[in-house]
Design goal:
- This protein has about 160 residues and is mostly helical.
- The chain is built from 6 helices and no strands.
- α1 (about 5-25) runs antiparallel to α4.
Length: about 160
């Protein structure tokens, strides 16, 4: 089996994520992403509960929802970043730094495969240009296509 041009691009993408996250480490990378995602999710789910309290405190309703969202997002973000700092200090010894980087390698692999999967999904959804010939030679497309096809059926 030979490596196609799409696979070379996918290998570059995968290598980028693996190297980046391995150097950064699992703790920093995971908690940096988790802080934004969980902060946004908590703020989105609960800002309506905090909005009346902010309205009562400030007297005006015009920016209450935005302020409630920001308070929830920033407080969740800061709590997760504090956990990151605490766990990062636990992983300060040399042997645990190696574990942090090894776990970072695995996380980078997963992140890279997710990005490649999203690219393949977008290629399958779009109808402007046919990539069938290029993807028919791709090892990544063959391995990930069963997962991608299940997801793209939803669109």
């Amino acid at each position: 089996m030979r490596i196609g041009s799409a696979d070379i691009v996918f290998l570059i993408i995968l290598s980028f994520f693996v190297i980046k996250v391995t150097v950064t480490g699992f703790i920093d990378e995971f908690f940096s992403k988790a802080a934004v995602i969980v902060g946004g999710l908590v703020a989105f789910l609960f800002y309506k509960l905090l909005t009346p309290v902010i309205t009562e405190l400030l007297g005006g309703k015009s920016l209450s929802a935005v302020i409630a969202f920001l308070i929830l997002f920033l407080s969740t973000y800061l709590i997760i970043k504090l956990v990151q700092v605490f766990l990062g200090s636990l992983f300060s010894s040399e042997s645990l730094k190696n574990l942090d980087r090894s776990l970072g390698f695995c996380l980078g692999l997963v992140e890279g495969l997710i990005v490649i999967g999203v690219i393949l999904m977008l290629i399958n959804i779009q109808t402007f240009v046919s990539f069938d010939k290029i993807l028919s030679e791709s090892i990544f497309a063959k391995i990930l296509s069963p997962f991608i096809l299940d997801i793209t059926k939803q669109f």
